[in-house]
Amino acid sequence: MGSSYGALARFNLVAVYLDELKFDEAMDEYRALSKDKKIESRFRELATLNLALLVLDKKGDKDQARSLLGSIASKGKPWFYSATEQLAILDLADGANESALLKFALLESDPSTPQSMIKRASQFRSLIEAAAQGKEINKDSSEESATKVEAEQ
Known about the structure:
single chain; mainly alpha; Serine Threonine Protein Phosphatase 5, Tetratricopeptide repeat; 0% strand
């Protein structure tokens, strides 16, 4: 149990780094947490997920983010659904719509996927399919839908 409290303290340290805009320190601590075999795998994988998102946001490194997310996007792992959703969004950003569609369909069809994520996956899938059919996508309405889903969470 001690290692769980220690891990939580380290996540709090990362929060302090982020509040102070010390992104490199935050990434270093997430990286260290993700490799620390003394803590539970769910905490290591959460650190990996957060590191991937921070690397993408602050460094714009899609390849590194994809690699990190891929390491935890295995069925049965605690952050599988979140990692898979982020990988699908990366696919979309890269124009790999078919790959994104497959990931969103997987999330949408899995009964264990959190409901809010199923709704987002369904909306993304609908947008991808509409784009594939050459339909105009109203950016304002899609942003409104995304905001509505976030508000429901």
